[in-house]
Every structure is written in C-alpha cells, then in structure tokens.
Amino acid sequence: MTADKQNPGERLLKTSTLWQLLEARVRLSSTAIMLIDADRGLKLTFAQAHNIAERLAAGFLASGIAPGSVVTWQLPTGLTAVMTALALSRLGCVQNPVIHLYGEHELKSVLARSQSAFLLVPGAVSERDYAAAAGRVCAQLEQPPVVLVMDGELPQGKPSTLPPPPQDGASVRWVYYTSGTTSEPKGARHTDETLMIGGRNLATAMAVTSHDIGTIAFPYAHIGGAMYTCMLLASGMSAVLLGRFVPTEACAAFQRYRVTTTGGSTAHYEALLMEQRRQPDTQLLPDLKLLCGGGAPKPPELYFAIRRELHCGLTHNYGMTEVPLVSAGTPQDSDEQLAHTDGMPVQDVEVIIVTLDGDIAEPGQEGEIRLRGKGVFKGYTDTALNAEAFDQNGYFRTGDLGMLRADGRLVLTGRLKDVIIRKGENISAREIEELLYSHPRVANVAVIGLPDAQRGERVCAVIEAAPGEAPLSFDEMVAFFNAAGVMRQKIPEQLEIMEQLPRNQTLNKILKHKLRELFAAGH
Ligand code: AMP
C-alpha cells in the first residue's frame, strides 16, 4: 500500500455499468480471488463470481424478476448478498438493499415507500427467522411484494435465457433508504455510475493494488457495500466477507487471510485498538497496512493511537447515503492532515462551503457543505423532498458543517442540527466532544443541546467511561475544561454517564436524537 509497493502498471478499470465492470475484470484477472467468505471458508475467483451471478440472474428471471423490476433485498454480508447484487445488476433491476439488522418496523417502513415487486430474504440466521418476519410485514402492506427466501439452493437458470445486459450506467438502478439517524427514511436514488465513481475514488485514495486483501465487515446493504464491490472490480483486489463483526473473531479471520486493509467506521478502529491493547507485546495484525473508513467523526487522538499501537496507517473519509464518497485521506498525506482532516474532495464531487449567511466561505471558514457533480445521487424517490434538498444552483445540501483548508482538505466540524444555541451563542458540539475525548477516563462522548427555559438550550455531555476507569464527576469535568482554558459558556452544564451510548446498527453511529429524548427532561 505504500508508494513503493504500488504497481504503476495497474490501472483502475472503468466501464459504463457494474456488470460490464465485472466482465472487464474477468477478462483481465479471471483466476484471481475476488471474495473470501470467512464464515464458510469459501473463496471465489472473479470468473466464478461472474458465472454464479449469471446463473442466479437466470434463476431470478425464471422466478418472475425482470429487467426494471424493483427488488428489495435484506441479506447479511456474505456471498449470497454479493451474488444477489451482481445478478440484479446483470438483469437491470432497480435494487433496494436493506440492512439485515433492521427489524420488522424498519422493513415495513421501507417497503411501504419502495413499492417493490419482490423481497429477497435469508431463511433463519442465528436466532432470527427472516422468512417469518417478511411474512408478517407483508401481511400489513396493501401491495405486498413476492417474497423469495434465499436459503439452501439459490435460484438458478441457464445464462442463455437471459436478455442482453443493460448498457446504460446512468439509469437509476439502486435505491438506498437513509439509515435511520433521522426518523423518516428517505430513498436516495443511485445509478451504476454514481456507485462506480465512489468505488474508483476510494481505490485511488487508498492506493490499493490487485495484491491487497480488504474486508467487508460491515452490513453489506449499506451503500459502502456496493461501493466496496466496485473498488474490488476496478482494482482487482480481494475482500474477506464477515457476516458479523465480533472483534476477536474478526481479528482471527484477518490474520488467517492476511488482510492488508480493513476498517468501516470509527467503531471498527476502536474495536481493533482494544484488541491490540489486550496483547500489547505482539503485533495483532502483522499484514495490516491501512485502516480506512468513514461515516462518523474520528478524533485526532485515535489516529495517533492507531499509528503507534497498530503500526498501520489510517485514512479516514467522509461520505453518506446520498454521496458515497465525498472526500478521503490518502497514505501520502501527512500525519497532521490525516489526524485533523477528512481528506481531499474526490473526483466528480464538487464541494462548496456556504456560510450561514449564504455566502461562499473563505478557506478555513465554517459553513454548510454542499455537493454537486457526477458522483452525487439522483435525488430522493419522494420528489417532494428534492426542492429542499438541493439549492437553487443544484448543490445538494448535506446538512453537515465543515471548512475547506488552504491545503484543499475538508474538515467536518459538525451537523447543522448539532449546533447548540445557548443564550443566542452558537456552540459546536463537535468541538466539546473532541476535548472530552482527549480525557484518559473517557471512552466515548456525545454532546447535545437540550431545551432550557433560561438559556434556550443548555449543553449536555453524555459520556461512556473508559474500561476500568471511574466515570468523571461533574466537578472533575468542569475542572478539566477550566484547565484547558475553555470559555465558560461552552462548558457543559449537565453531565450524564451511560454504560453504552445508543448507536445505530449500520455503522455504530451515536444516535443523538435518542439522547435528546432521554435527557430533555433534566434532573
Ligand atoms: P449515512 O447516510 O447514514 O451514512 O450518514 C451520513 C452522515 O454521517 C454524514 O452526512 C455525516 O453527518 C456523517 N459522517 C460521514 N462521514 C463522516 C466523517 N468523516 N466525520 C464526521 N461525520 C461523518
């Protein structure tokens, strides 16, 4: 992954559609390994993946799924999920991946919006009977989809029965419902092109080669799953698939398959660091060169701890369901850039920062991050949302706050909704979180604004104590801020300790709206 190990002769493949990308990869490296299913100990080459996906597409066709059909699939990370995504791409369907951890409530709310003709689910996985749950959900829908259970023998047919593959990479073929950090799910429409731009940009930023072995250890139905698949196909690298991320099991699999790069999100970095700390005298993952991920803030301290203790690089990135990759760090960046920024804006995504007064920000000035370009999604399925979502110049309003530095790097500073307005003064939750995170007795922290009769909003810090450490007392917290010279108005006036902060199931992001509900009443 370092510059000297890169093979300059290797180029990233580029095609119009995802299926064409798979075919181009097979022509170039048919016998190279594409996927390793760690749970089953199975490996598939690019050619095998192509053949299986083609037969599966023919099986789907025989079951009534046709080009253009809207198909929801709720499958855990594994070969079946990847083959399903490729087979539906071969047919030219509109696929709607749903995180396998979603419950019946979330599945129903997606299906009620997606109007899917088909729902693909696994049979029973661990304790959970997906087929039974799908039956219960469908019974509540006015126009229920046909349910296909992807269990045992998968549908198969003769590739000769298939219509020609789609040629147009600019049609909407993917709908991703945002993962639930806000309450109402919104369907973000994507094309093969938008996802492949993400995958190619990720490969470029990470500087992967065909010798790299990565991982998909997060829910495959997240937009990161399709983006990672595009990266595998564009670069010729392989990936280890994990049905669930249990740190000790994940590390054993990463060692066994000599993984060179892994990640996902901040929670994954933290989990690997904890594993390393349990055996400080041996290098946990000797083949690992790079951790990479995004989706949540990454405190600078974590970057330096990873460098020091895991002896690998960490390139953090910024993306979202609507734009899978906006900016990304690369191994060539300096430690300062990697620790303190979210990397450079990627190709085909134009980033502007608009101040709260509506002006274009100067370098280093904070404002809302807005995006335009070929890497941006094609609007929401509910068209009524689009007038609000895009500004008059066609830029997507992310609702994230950030700044572009003079060196071109993007720094996320918070969420528009996350600005706490205390006595008319704007306070950045993120800034207070970063300070608290640097305290050795704090494992994780979320700072929220709570309604307050005198102040408009008051600042509340919610803390998970570091393992084996006594939780901070309120007075200790105040003393810590005072010692750091923080202005009095920013010091939280409420402290809550939780064993575990509430998180979403996709990338383990902290759910601040839950915290607001929980603590709004005060004490
Ligand atoms: P989702 O669409 O559920 O994947 O969430 C996307 C949101 O996650 C973004 O709009 C950001 O608010 C947040 N996010 C993504 N990447 C980062 C990052 N590097 N730092 C901070 N927040 C991030």
Helix content: 25-40%
* Structural domains: how many: 3
Hetero groups: adenosine monophosphate
Q: Which band does the percent of strand residues land in?
A: 15-25%
Radius of gyration: 23 Å
CATH topology of the largest domain: Rossmann fold
Q: By helix and strand content, what is the structural category? A: alpha/beta
- Sequence of strands across the biggest β-sheet: 13-14-15-16-17
At the fourth CATH level, what is the homologous superfamily of the largest domain?
A: ANL, N-terminal domain
Distance between the termini: 52 Å
- Mean pLDDT over all positions: 94
Specify the biggest β-sheet: 5 strands, mixed
Summarize this structure as a short list of keywords or feature phrases.
single chain; 523 residues; alpha/beta; Rossmann fold; GMP Synthetase, Chain A, domain 3; 3 domains; five-stranded mixed β-sheet; four-stranded mixed β-sheet; 15 helices; 26 strands; 31% helix; disordered N terminus; binds adenosine monophosphate
What does this structure look like?
The chain folds into three domains: 158 residues, ANL, N-terminal domain (Rossmann fold, 3-Layer(aba) Sandwich), CATH 3.40.50; 171 residues, ANL, N-terminal domain (Rossmann fold, 3-Layer(aba) Sandwich); 98 residues, GMP Synthetase, Chain A, domain 3 (2-Layer Sandwich). The strands form eight sheets. It has a five-stranded mixed sheet, sandwiched between helices. It is globular, with a radius of gyration of 23 Å. It contains 15 helices and 26 strands. Helix 10 links the parallel strand 14 and strand 15. The N terminus is likely disordered. The termini are far apart. It is α/β, with parallel strands linked by helices and 523 residues long. The site of adenosine monophosphate has 17 residues, from strand 15, strand 20 and strand 21.
